[in-house]
Amino acid sequence: MEKKNIDWSKLGFAYTKTDYRWQSTWDNGEWSEGGLLEDPEFHLLESACVFHYSQSCFEGLKAYTTEDGRIVTFRPDQNGLRMIDSAKRLEIPPFPLEKFLQSIDEVVRANAAWVPPYGTGASLYIRPVLFGSGPQIGVAPAPSYTYRVFVMPVGSYFKEGPKPIRICVSDYDRAAPHGTGAIKAGLNYAMSLFPTQEAHRNGYAENMYLDPQTRTYVEETGGANILFVDADNNLIVPKSQSILPSVTRRSLVYVGQHYLGLNVIERQVRLDEVKNFKECCLCGTAAVLAPVGLIHTHEGDIALPSGMDQMGEICGKLRQTLTDIQACKIEAPEGWIRTIC
Ligand SMILES: *Cc1c(COP(=O)(O)O)cnc(C)c1O
Question: Which atom of ligand 1 is nearest to the CA of 250?
Fold first, then answer.
C-alpha cells in the first residue's frame, strides 16, 4: 500500500479529509448494517435534534504503526463501552460494541495510506460521533440517529518533547454533581469554550475545574484528567462522579501499579493540599501525558517542584512506559493492543 505524500513531521491537530468514513443509521428501532462512504458531508434537516437540543456524544482514539509495521489501535473496546454509557445518558440508542470495533477496524483499514509511518510521532486520530439526526422540535429524543466515524492524520502533540504547561483554576464550572460530567457529550464542551478562551487570553494552557458544589476539590480540565504525585511518590488520582473516565488515566494508573510498583490512591483531592505535591500532569488521548509546571489560584500560584523546564520523574516514567506499551516495545496487558492490519 502506497502511503500518502505527506510531511508527517509537520502535521498539527486539525481536520483533514481522508478517503473513507464509516456510517450506520438507526431507524425504526434498529441500527443499519453500516459501511464505508466517500462523502465527508452530512445531509441533515434543519430540524435535526442535534442542532437544537445537542443530543450528541463522541469519542477520540488513535491508530498508529508499530515498530514491526502493524497498524494497531489502543484499547478501542474502552471507547466503545464509554460511548454506550454516553448514549444511555442522552437517550440515544447505544451503538453496539461489536459494531463499534468493526467500524473502527474497517475505517482505519480503508484509510491505511493515511496512517503515519512508525517513528514519525504522528498517528491517525479516530473520531466516532453519535447524534440525534432525525427531526425534533418538541423537546424529546430524536426519532432517528446517525453513527459516523472518520479519521485524520495528526502530529505529535509535543514537537520538541513534553514541556510543562501553566494552568489556572477556573471561576466557571464544568460539570454539576449529578450532571453529565462523566459522559463524553458535546454539550460539556460547548460551555467550556468561553472559559478556555479566557484562560488562553490570560496566558494559561488549560483550566483546572473544581467541584461546583463546594469549590474545594480538584476535578479535571476541559478535556483531560489530572494526576498528582505526592511527597511519598504515591500516585494521587482525584475521585468524583463528574470526572470523565479517561482511558489514558485508567491505563496510567494500571501502568503505575503493575509496571512501576507505585502506590495509587484514588480519593477526593482538596485544592489546598496541591501545594504539598511534587508533580502534576494532565492525561488524555491527544497528549498521553502533559506535565503541569504551575497552577494559578486565587490564593496565589502553586509552582510544582518539578519546575517549568522538564517533566517530573514519576510522570516521565509513567509516560515512557505507556508510550512503550503503545508502540509494542514492551509487552502490553492482555487486550490493550488491537491489530488491524
Ligand atoms: C476525552 C476526555 C478526556 C480524556 O479521555 P481519554 O479517554 O484518555 O482520551 C478527559 N477529560 C474529558 C472531559 C474528556 O472529554
Answer: 8
Query: How buried is 4 (Cβ within 10 angstroms: 0-12 exposed, 13-18 middle, 19+ buried)?
Result: middle
3-class secondary-structure state, position 253: helix
167 strand-pairing partners? 206, 295
Statement: the pTM of the whole predicted model exceeds 0.90:
yes
Bigger pLDDT: 160 vs 326: 326
Neighbours of 186 (CB within 10 A): 16
- Nearest CA-CA partner of 101 in 120, 125, 128: 128
Centre a 10 Å sphere on the Cβ of residue 189 and count the other Cβ atoms it contains.
15
Q: Region 184-192: what's the mean pLDDT?
A: 97
The yes-or-no answer on residue 184 being catalytic is yes
pLDDT of residue 249: 98
**Catalytic member of 159, 163, 184, 275:** 184
Alpha carbon nearest to ligand 1 atom 13, residue: 223
Mean pLDDT score across all residues of the chain: 96
Residue to probe by mutation, ligand 1, list 184, 218, 252, 322, most atoms within 8 Å of CB: 184
